[in-house]
Amino acid sequence: MEAAQRQKQVLIINAAPMFREFLREKLSSENVSVEIADGRLDSFSKVVRILPDLIVIDIENSFSEVMDLLERKMSDPNAKRIPVIISGPVMERAQISSLVQYGVVKYFSKPIKFDIFFEAIGKILRVNLSMDTTPCVLEIHHNGSIIFVEVAQGLNREKIALLKYKISEMIDVYKIKDPKLIVMMTNLNLSFVDGINVELLLDTVTADERIHKRNIKVLSLEDFMDEFLDGHAEYTGVKVIKDLTTALGSLVGRNDSGADATDIIADSILTGDDEEAAGMVDIRFGADAGEGESLNTEGSLLTVAIVDDDEVVRKILSQAFVSLGITTETFDSGAAFAQAIQTKNYDLAILDLFMQGVSGYDILKRLQGMERKIPVIVYSQAVQREYVIQALSLGAKGYLAKPQKPEVILRKAMEVLHERI
Q: Is the backbone peptide bond immediately before 111 cis, with ω within 30 degrees of 0?
């Protein structure tokens, strides 16, 4: 009788909390043993003690520290042959290629495409790692204390599992007090066959104890959702609502001090975030956007569209984005931008609401009907409650009231650009 196959071991080094915990949960569920190491001394001692089948290194800050670890690994006769996968920022091709001599077999530029990432791990370990390939667009962003989760096309169990860590990380990074959650599922047709995945989604969004169930609203047009919640006492408090205006009103209107809902929106939605997005990890699937990263892959530039009839605003924002190495295209009218999006793709749009002819609202409506979604940050002088809610209802990912310092716009842009799972 053949001996049982030895359990494979993976050592994860210096990974951000969300990245680390998602990897640990996924690999452990596939019967792969996972060890975690942080810091130079801890990392090398575990490499030589465990002698894992694979080392996964996440580069956050110090590349020199990673090179030191790789050189020490190569000096040890038992560890030198251990394959290494690295995830990190976009690097020059020559720099990536130089890592081959240290046993690095894959380099994944962030944002990581996780289906391709796990496929690479499976090949190295010679194990079959299961992956849910259901088409799914899942985005998460926040305005003030309200976290928006948008789910479209389908329910993908891998992305839903990742969402749990993404929500908790967002609360931690932005120090959100009394967080509230809106799960937007209006583009999903659901029935009883989706029950197990809906249950996983609700378990995920209710997992963080800092979000009270009474502060979770599910935006869905399906009667199935009402019936599903009625049959599950563990989700008592979670409510299904048919339109975003009602959902927003029920959440921002909840205020013990008696402040007007308009004031709450002005305080929590119209103002910029002062916290840095340090530690945020953006994770995507290769099926969402092209091929995976490998040792010979370079990153591509981001392109931001700035749509505003104020020339000064266009110039200031363009200079701010260009200073970060981001390409910009400016449009002095909604009509010009509406024509451009017929043939061009943009990673983000900064959009004024009130322009002659085609307004910002018209643009948001057109974008809703497009197959490829362009995330939008509204940048407008309008601060009335109805304007804000209408823009968010039409899919805007953020709303900033004019005027703002360029760094506030950039921080919000970076947050939105790192939201899609």
A: yes
